[in-house]
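ingest -> validate -> predict -> emit
validate: passed (alphabet ok, no gaps, 251 aa)
predict: started
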Amino acid sequence: MAATPRPSADRVQLHGLGVDRVTMDDTLALIDAFVREGGPHHIVTLDSSMCVTARADAELREIVRAAELVTPDSVGVLWACRRAGCPLPEQVSGVDIVDRLCARSAERGHRLFFLGGAPGVAEDAAKRMATRFPGCQVVGTRDGYFRPEEEAGVLEAIGHARPDVLCVAMGIPRQEKWIARNRDRLCVPVLIGVGGTLDVASGRVSRAPRWVRRANAEWLYRLLRNPRKLVKALTLPRFAWMTLRAPRARP
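emit:
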């Protein structure tokens, strides 16, 4: 896959990738614009583990560079950019983006499709969001446990549902590669990788209390609640080392 990094006065270079200097309100306004324009637009939610993974994964690296929007999904990314002299305004995570999109769905008329998670998770997430946000339009769901020979059927189901935003929760880097491989086959204006967001939206995984999030310790809360995230947490020391050794980022 050949891709050219998108030049942007608001894109900060970090560890060979780019992250956009956007707020949550900026992100939602861009999603509105992307929906009006039609598709496809790939939104990447960049966290520390993705930076580490992309270091050794050229395909993922080029996908992130080519994305129409890259948001800072972790406090680690905020810290690294601040240390490099290019501070970003705030964290814009996948879980918060999906929450805000569902809250705005009835007002804006945007149609969402949830793809990914274990069987039952996407369906539970759709039901819970409809309860929390009356009028929220989740027009289709599908778990992420499908075989390669079933992919054509998944694409057909998404096309039939005609969503404005496709939320793909398959984990890094599978979700980014799946979106890049299929973006031109889908008539979807916005495609966004959201990691474990559907687990949270379904109620199966609880978010950290607000005071823990304000203390920038949600990653530790999640690790203590789910030790299986240890593999992802182990990328944090490497990310810190990469950041401490890196020169100042170029805006």
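The CA atoms of residues 125 and 198 lie 6 Å apart.
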